[in-house]
Design brief:
This protein is mainly beta and about 200 residues long. Helices cover about 10% and strands about 40% of the residues. It is globular, with a radius of gyration of 16 Å. Mean pLDDT is about 80; it is low at about 1-15 and about 20-60.
Length: about 200
Amino acid sequence: MLPIANVTRWITQSDHPEGPMQYSRGIVAAALVLAAACGGPLGPGAGKTPSEPAQPALVESGVDQSVTGGGQFVHPDFGTVTFSFVANRLADGRVTGRFQQHQPTFGVTYQADVTCFAVDPVNHRAWIGGVLTQSNDPDPVAQVGKDAWFRVLDQSGTSSGDRSTFLGFEGGGGILTSAQYCQAQIWPEGNARTWPVEQGTIVIH
């Protein structure tokens, strides 16, 4: 586990749509120490591994477009992050799906229903947003009912490999909602703040 001093060192409001949240992760670290002392895990995701992703939404008939993925990446602050997601756009325009990210180091899990996504088919990029349905993160911007989002890069069949960001939350980079994030389709130069996917894959269908 990272020392609390290291966790709180970089906590400021993020200037980017995805990244560290507005409030101290020292709260989470302290809660984990307390949970360990009591002999129990913190939150419903504490025991999850990359082989136990969130169950994806049911496959819908009449899907016009979809983005799917699962695996793990290593974040410089949060360590290993496991993830899974599916986002479908139906023939009638509705968007369905779910996503999950889990931080084994901190025992923090986020689950959400997909409410929007956008695809750049030329550059093989996708932006996915939703509403949190489960979160054991005490940060006010990460509570159930709040918006969260992330973006992915599908580089299947290349030597570069797929990439994903950590979740973004309200206020990051001036983005307030998932709908705003999906519409803005922000992608920094050099694939900034995306991390190589390990033991998994991302596919834009």
